[in-house]
Design brief:
7-stranded mixed sheet; alpha/beta; 5-stranded parallel sheet; single chain; FAD/NAD-bd_sf; transmembrane helix; 14 helices
């Protein structure tokens, strides 16, 4: 799986992007090669973005992980001696300004809204929750891999209440994706992901953890060996491959030449940078699209469930569309005091796609994050992505190689670092690349 240099000299390698994919690749490559990292933003870290809220350090992008399904991230934290602590992963749903509310923490949360006890729709949802958790892992094994989650739910007879009031809200909160998009996700991949992450268990779920002091604490340790090689506020505008070399263009500077480039940007951004993209690059990278999430760090309690007893770490809120249909605009509010163990003199929330603007005096920070959207076409493209690696001295990595999360990005970044740089990660874990489709190819 490794690209072996024809000479003993260190390679000059450009890495574009400082998300975890780019940083993990640069970290591994810098141990043997001359690496230059380009970052468009003034800060380093991509979705690792810790914001100061008074005396509290609050993460607004990457927040939590678990040791079972994030083996490389866990190993990296151990290797860098990054302190972490246990998190709370409770989940709540609030529909139509509290017309329906519940949390899955315990019976008190389930029936915090007394009318749930007498609601046929609510009991229908609970029955389907139990049935889905018990049956889905086995029943999807015989499905066509291209069958969507909606296809499976329809064929298995799962009700509207289960979809609208539980499954799609939960998935939308996890993937930061509009609930109505979740039904397009391939059923086999969706259920496998949920099963692997312990989401289909009522008991003994994995313990989720968060980084002490925010994700910036691990980024600082990771970049320490090559910090002087990182250029911030240096957006790459074009990448051109000529005669076995790579030309990198940035504003206000002469183009620079490198032996190889690692593009650690979103798939659509990576494609846009290539001035001489191949047909295969266009087909595979062009299969991916992204959703934009307005993200706000604030303390406005009107973007939480109305009933305080329902408040959870993850809170999904939605409203029915004005035309009376059951299409809902979703938003997710993370209660950071509970989710990240943030100590502050006020409640702090991170809300994605807020239903209404939080009161301006409560706002600490605003930003926008992009997340990949998955369907049968993207899953098919993922299986072929590794065939692009090393072609025209160009390499790619990012969370879109897997399910869109931190472990997917780090697996892709480390695999590129090993394949290109001839180095190996300093740990051994089971399934080190099992969330991406890493294949052997000749370069």
């Amino acid at each position: 799986m490794r690209h072996v240099s024809q000479s003993d000299r260190p390679l000059r390698i450009a890495v574009v992007g400082t998300g975890i994919g780019g940083l993990s690749a640069a970290w591994l490559l810098s141990q043997r090669h001359e690496v230059t990292v380009f970052e468009a933003e003034a800060r380093i870290g991509g979705h690792c973005h810790t914001v100061e809220a008074g005396q509290a350090a609050v993460d607004t992008g990457f927040i939590v992980y678990n040791e079972r399904t994030y083996p490389n991230l866990t190993a990296l934290f151990s290797h860098l001696d990054v302190p972490t602590k246990a998190s709370d992963m409770s989940f709540a749903v609030s529909m139509d300004d509290g017309v329906l509310e519940y949390s899955g923490t315990n019976l008190v949360g389930l029936f915090a809204q007394g009318s749930n006890l007498a609601s046929p729709r609510f009991w229908s949802m609970l029955r389907d929750v139990v049935r889905f958790y018990r049956e889905a892992p086995a029943s999807v094994r015989d499905l066509d891999p291209s069958a969507s989650l909606d296809d499976y739910l329809n064929s298995a007879g799962f009700g509207t209440a289960f979809r609208e009031d539980h499954l799609y809200p939960m998935a939308a909160a996890i993937w930061s994706t509009p609930a109505l998009e979740i039904g397009n996700y391939p059923a086999v991949s969706f259920v496998r992901f949920c099963e692997n992450h312990g989401l289909l268990k009522f008991f003994r779920r994995p313990i989720w953890r968060t980084v002490e002091g925010g994700s910036r604490a691990y980024v600082e340790k990771l970049i320490a060996p090559f910090r002087h090689r990182i250029r911030t506020s240096a957006p790459v505008t074009a990448i051109r491959r000529v005669n076995g070399a790579v030309e990198i263009s940035t504003p206000g500077a002469e183009p620079e030449w490198f032996d190889h480039v690692v593009i650690a940007a979103h798939a659509d951004q990576a494609l846009a940078l290539l001035t001489d993209r191949s047909e295969r690059e266009n087909d595979l990278l062009g299969a991916f699209c992204y959703g934009l999430n307005e993200t706000v760090l604030h303390s406005d309690e009107t973007l939480m469930p109305r009933r305080r007893r329902v408040w959870s770490s993850w809170n999904y809120l939605a409203q029915s569309a004005r035309d009376g249909s059951k299409r809902r605009k979703p938003c997710v509010t993370y209660w950071m005091n509970r989710l990240q163990g943030v100590t502050a003199d006020r409640a702090l929330f991170v809300t994605l796609s807020p239903l209404h603007a939080p009161a301006e005096e409560t706002v600490v920070w605003r930003g926008v994050y992009q997340h990949p959207l998955f369907n049968a076409a993207t899953l098919a493209a993922q299986k072929e992505l590794w065939s692009l690696q090393g072609q025209s001295n160009t390499w790619f990595c990012g969370s879109y190689f897997g399910s869109g999360f931190h472990e997917d990005a780090i697996q892709a970044g480390l695999a590129v670092g090993e394949s290109l740089g001839g180095t190996t990660r300093p740990w051994t874990v089971a399934g080190e690349s099992d969330r991406i489709f890493r294949t052997l190819q000749q370069v």
